[in-house]
Amino acid sequence: MVVEQFSQIKKAKTSYILAFILRFIMKKIIFSWALFCLAIASIYGQEQTKDTIAPNNLNEVIVIGKKSEISQKQVKPLASIDEYLQQSGKIEMIKRGGYAWEPVLNSMATERTLITIDGMRIFGACTDKMDPISSYIEVSNLSEASIKSGQQGACHGATIGGAIDLKRNRSSFNDLGWKTSVNTGFETNSNQKIFGTAVNYVSDSFYIDTDFMYRDADNYSGGNSQKVLFSQFRKFNISATSGVLIDKNKLVEGSIIYDKATAVGYPALPMDVSLAEALITSLKFEYVPKSKKLTSDLALTNWETKIYYNTITHKMDDTKRPAVPIHMDMPGWSDTYGFYSKIKGVIENHHFNVDLNSFYNRSIAEMTMYPSDPNENLMFMYTWPDVRTFYGSLFLEDNIALNAASSLKFSVSLGNHFNEVADQLGLESLQIFYPNMSKSKSRILKSISANYLHYQNGFEYGLGIAYGERAPSVSEGYGFYLFNSFDRYDYIGNPGLKNENSVEGNAYLGYKNKSFSAKLTSSYFHISNYIVGKPDATVLPMTIGASGIKVYTALDYATIFNTDLNLEYQFDSHFKAKGQLVYNYGKDLENQNLPFISPLRYSTALNYKKDRFSAEIMIQGNATQTQYSPFYGEDRTPDYAILNLTSSYLFAINESKLNVRAGIENVLDTYYSTFSDWNNIPRKGRNFFLNVTFAY
Amino acid sequence: MKFQLKNIVTVLLIAFTFVSCSTDNSEPIVISELDGLTKIQELTNDTHTIELYSASGTLQQGYNAISLRIKNKATKEYETNATVNWAPIMKMSTMTHACPYSEIKKTSGKQTLYNGYIVFQMAENTMEHWFLTVNYSINGVAESVSAQIAVPASTKQRVTTFIGTDGTKYLLALIDPSNPKVATNEMTVGVYKMSSMMQFPVVDGFKVKIDPRMPSMGNHGSPNNVDLIQSSIDKLYHGKLSLTMTGYWKINLQLLNDKNEVLKGESITDAVPSSTIYFEIEF
Q1: Cβ contact (<8 Å) for A541 and B220?
Q2: A 377-406 residues with CB below 8 A of B?
Q3: How far A382 CA lies from chain B's nearest CA (Å)?
Q4: Using the beta-carbon criterion (under 8 Å), do B245 and A379 form an inter-chain contact?
Q5: Nearest-CA neighbor of A108 among A555, A528, A598, A589?
Q6: Contact (CB<8Å) A376/B247
Q7: Which architecture does CATH list for B159-282?
Q8: Is the whole-model pTM more than 0.95?
Q9: Which N-terminal residues, if any, form the signal peptide (chain B) (predicted)?
Q10: Among candidates A489, A502, A405, which has minimal Cα distance to A447?
Q11: DSSP characters for A356-371?
Q12: How far apart are CA B88 and CA B122, in angstroms?
C-alpha cells in the first residue's frame, strides 16, 4: 500500500531528503564507512535513528521492493507499476487499455508533470501518449516511487504538477553474497502470465543486480464478462546494475534497462502498438568525502554525478484492426542524453543541495498513410518534426532546522529550455500554420518554493508556497495533426506559446500515535497561460472522422485543487483498517471544468495478519463524476464500487522464503468505467490472481 | 644558367596559366548555358538547327517552359542575336487550332538561349498531332523551321478547358509549384481565353479560388491557402498553396471574373466533394 513518508520514517529511510537528514544526525558518528553505506543505500539501511527535523510534507513514497524481493506488503506484489502508482491519493491513471497507463499527478497529466527514473529524464516516443515513461520499466527494477507534489519536484526539472521519481533497486553492502528470487504469477481475467527472476551478488566492494520480468496477457473482460477487444499485451524487461566501490568512499555504478513490449492493444484508441522498445543506460559516480568538514562550518556529505542515455522506439500499428478508413504507420523515436551532478552538504543548521542538470532530447514522429489505390503515392508527414530540446538548470535547496520541532525549506531553480526544429520538411510544414515561425526558440524557466514544517507530539503540519514555470511539450509546441481520439480533434502545436506558470499553495496536517494515523494534504494551483487546445473552425481536420482542428493556445488561467485524506487504525495485533478519501477540483477562468478531474474517490481496507498468514478485504470506488467537461470529450461517468479480497501465506524453508498470495479483484464482477478511462472503456471484471515469490 | 632556368620556369608558368584560362573561359559556359536543361528534339532547315530544351527533356499536355538554341549549320556556332517567335498548331482531323503561348525572349544571363512557354491544352493521339513553327531572323534575314513535336498526355491534370457562364471558353494552366513540397508553396496559374481558334490571350483582372483536397483520405483540406490574383508584372495569377503531406492532391478551382461572379467551379462541401474544374498534384 501507499506508505506515507512520515509513517515510514522510523522504519526505513525512504528518500534522498530523508537520507541527508539522517546523515545530519549521523555526522556525529565517526563511522564514515557505515555512513557511506547509508548514503549509497539509504533506502535499505537498518538504522532506527529518530529524527529531529520534521520530515518533508507533501511527498509520498510507494514502496515497490527491496534488493532481490518485490515488496510483500503489496496486496498483489506482481501488479504492474501502474497499479502500484494508482494507490497514491495524488495519482490517477488515464487508461487506454490494459497496459501503459498514463499517470496523472495532482490532476495534471504528462505535460505538466515529470517522471524520472533515478533522476534521469526520459521522453516517450508516442505522439498519442501511449508510452508514458512508467511503461518502460518493471516493478522488479524498482525499489520505490517517490512522489513530490508541485515545485518540490523541481529538482528533477521544470514542472507544474510535481514529479514522480522511480528509484531503481540496488543491493546494499550490508548483505553480502548471492540472492536469488523467482516470481511467477497468473491472472484469470486476461490470462496474464507473469514470470520473473532476480539474481544479485554483493561482495565487499562490488555488486551486481540483475532482474528479468516477462508478462503476457490476452484480452481482458470487463464486468459481466464483456471481452474488451485489443487489450492484450506482451512485454519483457531485463535490467542490470553493477557497482564498484573504490577506497570505500567512491562508487562507480553502471546501469542498464532494456524493455520491449510487442502486440500491445489499446482498445480505447484507433490504433495499437506493434513495438515499444526502450534502452535506458546510465553511469554514475558517487563520492562521500572521508573528511566531511571542509571548513569549521561547512561539511559536504555527498556528491553524485550521473551521465545517461536512453533511446525509445515506438511503432503504432492498425493492421490488426478489422476496419480502418485508411491504413497508416505512425512510428516515433525519442533519444535523450543527459547528466546531473548534485552535491549535498551542511552548514551549521542548513542542509543544502546543489543540483546542476542538463539533457538533450531528440523527438521525431512520422505518419505514413497508405491510399487504397496502390499506384498513388504514399501520404507522408512529420507529426513531431525532429524537435531538439536542450535543457540545463541549476537547482538549489536549503533545509534549515529551526529547532527540534520545525524546519524551513527553500528551493530555487533557474533553467534554460531551448527548442529547435531540425527537419526542414517539418519546419516548412509548421510554417503552413505559422509563416513567420523561426527554427528555434529559447526560454528561461524559473522555480522558487518555500515550505515550513512543524512536528510535535505526534502532530505535524506544514505550509508551503511556490512558483514554477514550464515550457510547452513537444506536442504542444510542434505537434502536427495529432489526432486525439478522446475529443476527436486533430491538434496543431503552437511554437509561440508562452511559458505556463503556476502559483501554488499547499498545506498538510497529520497525526500519528501507536495505533492511529491520519494525514490530510491539500494543494492548490493557480496556473496562468494554461495550455489547452482551442477549436479553429477555419481549418479542416485531416483525420477521417475527426470533428475539427484544435490549435494549442493558452487560457489566461485555470485553477486546480486537490486534497486527500489517509487514515490508518491498528485495532490490535491482528486487525488493521485503512481508508483513503480524495477530492479534486479543476476549473478554467470561465468556470468550465478541466478534463480528467477525479470525482470524489475512496478506498477502505480491513487487514488481518496472524503469524505468516494475512488477508485483506478492500472496497474501492468513485462517486458519480458530475464535474465533467464535454469540451474536452468527457461525459458523465456513473459511480461505482468494487470489492477485492486477498490472502497470503509465507512459507519459510531453511533460508528460503516462499510467498504465496492469492486474491480476487472485483469479486462481484461489476461492470464499471472510471472518469479516467479513455472513451469509457470498461475496467477489469472479476479477476483471480496468484502470485508466487520464491527467494533464497 | 640561373637566369635561363628562371626564364624557362616563367614561360612554363605562363603557358600553364593560358591553358587553365582557356579551359576556364570555354567549358563552364557550355555547362552553365544548359544547366538543368535536357534536349527535347531538334528542328532543322537548310541553314540552322533549332534545339528545343526543357527541364525534363520532354513536352507534355499543360504548361511547358521551353528553351531553345539556334545553331548555324555552317559555322557550328550558336546564334546570339536572333529575333524569335513561334507558333504551335494542333492539326486535328477536321480542323486546326493553336494554344496559349508566350513570346520568346533571350534568356537573361545566358548567351545562346531563348525561352518562352507553351500551354498544350490537349495531348496528341495517333491521328492528331502538334506542330511547332519557329520563325527567326538573324541580321534582318528571316527564316523559319517547322516540325511535328511529341506532346503526350500528362499523368496528372495540369490544364483545364471549359466554357464559363459568360459563354466564353477559358483555359487554366498550372505553372507552379513544379516541385511541390510539404510546405506553403507559391502557386502560379495562367488564365487564358479562347478568342478564336488561333488566339488565346491572357485574361486580366480575374481571380482563381483554390481548395486543395486529398480524396484518398476523407477529402481533407489544408489551411492558409491564398487565392490567386493577377500580377501586373508577368500577367500570371499568383497565390499560396498549402500541402500538409505528400501524396495525391486535387486542387479544386473556381474562376471568378472581375465582378467576383463565379464563371465556373463549385465550393467543396460534403455533398460536393470535387469541383468541375481542378488540377492534380502528386508528389
Answers
A1: yes
A2: 377-381
A3: 8
A4: yes
A5: A598
A6: yes
A7: Sandwich (2.60)
A8: no
A9: 1-22
A10: A502
A11: EEEEEEEEEEEEEEE-
A12: 12
> How far apart (Å, rounded) are the C-alpha atoms in residues A88 and A566?
10
Confidence category of residue A140, pLDDT binned at 50, 70, 90: confident
CA distance A32 to B266: 84
ipTM of the predicted structure? 0.83
Nine-digit cell string for B17 = 596559366
The two beta strands, A162-168 and A113-117, are parallel
Residue labelled with grid coordinates 467576383: B260
Q: How confident is the model at residue A66 (pLDDT cuts 50, 70, 90)?
A: low
Angle at the Cα of A549 from the Cα atoms of A544 and A554, rounded to 5 degrees = 150
Cell of A89: 491519493
Helix orientation angle between A32-40 and A16-26, rounded to the nearest 10 degrees: 170
Task: Return the amino acid letter for A421.
Answer: V
> Domain A2-695 belongs to what architecture?
Beta Barrel (2.40)
The DSSP code for A286 is: E
Look at residue A191 in the predicted model and tell me its pLDDT: 95
Contacts of A100 (CB under 8 A, 6+ apart): A82, A130, A131, A132, A134, A135, A233, A261, A264, A276
**Which residues of chain B form CATH 2.60.40?**
38-149, 159-282
Tell me yes or no: is domain B38-149 CATH 2.40.70. no
Interface size, chain A vs chain B, as Cβ–Cβ contacts under 8 Å: 86
Q: Is A432 on the interface with B (CB under 8 A)?
A: yes
* Residues in Cβ contact with B149 at an 8 Å cutoff, skipping those fewer than 6 apart: B40, B41, B52, B59, B88, B129, B130, B131, B132
Are B182 and A380 in contact (CB < 8 Å)?
Answer: yes
For chain B, residues with pLDDT lower than 70 are 1-31
β-bridge partners, A341: A305, A356
Cα Dmax for chain A: 80
SS (H, E, C) B10-29: HHHHHHHHHHHHHHHHHHHH
- Smallest CA-to-CA distance from A124 within A135, A140, A112, A108 is with A135
Q: What are the beta bridge partners of residue B82?
A: B138
